[in-house]
Design brief:
By secondary structure, this protein is mostly helical. It is 71% helix and 1% strand. Strands 1-2 form a two-stranded antiparallel sheet. The longest helix is centred in the N-terminal third of the chain and has 33 residues, at 89-121. The radius of gyration is 22 Å and the shape is globular.
Length: 486
Amino acid sequence: MPSDVVVLKRQLGLWSCVGMVIGPIIGSGIFISPKGILQNTGGSVGWALMIWTACGVMSMLGALCMAELSTTFPRSGGDFMYIMIGFNKMLAFLRVFTFVAIVRPASAAVVSMTMGNYLLAVFRDDCSMTDETGEIVVKLLAACMLCVIFALNVYSVPTTYRLQVVLSAAKVLGLVLIIFLGFIRICQGHTSNFENAFKSDNLDIGNIPLAFYSGLFAYAGWHFLPQVTEEVERPSRNIPLAIIISMTIVTIIYILANVAYFTVLSPEELLTSKAVASDFALPMLGSWSWIIQICVALSCIGSTNGVIFAASRVIYSASREGMLPEFLSMIHIRWLSPLPAAALLLPLCLMMLSGDNVYTLINYMSVSRWIFLAISVAVIPYYRWKYPDLHRPFKVPLIVPILFIFLSIFIVVMSFFKDPLACGIGLLISIIGIPLYIVCVVWFWREKPVWFLKLMGKVTLFMQKLMFVIHQEEEEKTFLIISDIK
């Protein structure tokens, strides 16, 4: 490919892909979710570890399904693209609407604030925002981190994924340190918290889906790599292999890290902990406990970097398909990055930082997220039946997507049973996208008035001059055309 061609280049090799999976997954979840899982399993250590294992298995199943979809339909955009190819544009628009407007900005805000908390803890006695000043400092740190990551993402794609590999290695080493310290405690005989591990007087089966949500939040990110398929070298090989390597590493590390936590903290101490990693590190490392806090902060930076990198590609893909304004599908002429798409994401993340209901929004949208993931995975059995001869470079056994869909539906149904109000609000937020789709995609963008055409032409031209961006050159596009499939 000529060096002067303006196109998103294939620059992600195998280990860059591994970093793009591990990086977004290992963020704040492993340091936040242990408390949520233990609380919703009645304080039972055994059941908590079972949930961690089950969440890892479920995430692996979903990731393998995404590997088949991304190699069968080698286009960036992830589940948004698969829903559009497999079913219809309205469902795909609802997915990208909730994704762009709420899910990704809220997740980035939460992870960046966790980074601020742990970074601040290096200079304080605890990691909690105990006063208004502490909260302001944490949000300022989070905002600065988001701006730096945004600048790096748009300025240098190679530097971005190299940093992702480095941060992924750093966060894995940090968790390995926790696991090693826990192993020492076990060798010293500190195993009392594992006695009668499955005994609990407070276990409520109705809370199991909530425990799953906490665990799946920690594993969130396994579907990010297919969102950047067009930038992966040899995607039919590297995507499945990277997913298998990454998910195996993450699942083993998560389970062992939680075992390590319980060698130091009792269930009661973990439930009252405001920062599990810090409370674990303090008695083990003493004045050197800041090492763990730095590792947590690096984990959050890596996770946020992966979120912004992948989410900007989803916005880029949705714009290219005519579901978002045209200029969002343009690429910087020198940096070869989707600058307008990333520029849309940054203010949304900063807006989430300024609000006080970010965690509530994430809880509301959890049900919607799993519904859309189940729909995207349903493309596999549907296309196996409808297009049995379609070329599939990587193919999973049919039981894998069926089992994932069943588990997703089970979690959604149980969530409605346990908390119908929160689930209903989440669905209502998603349904708001229907009139937007009808007005902006079906009617307004197809039957464009002359004044609108002129206005959008001026806006597009202004954004091109402001950001130095143009459309990806058509002759260099190698992605699959939907009409060729159907």
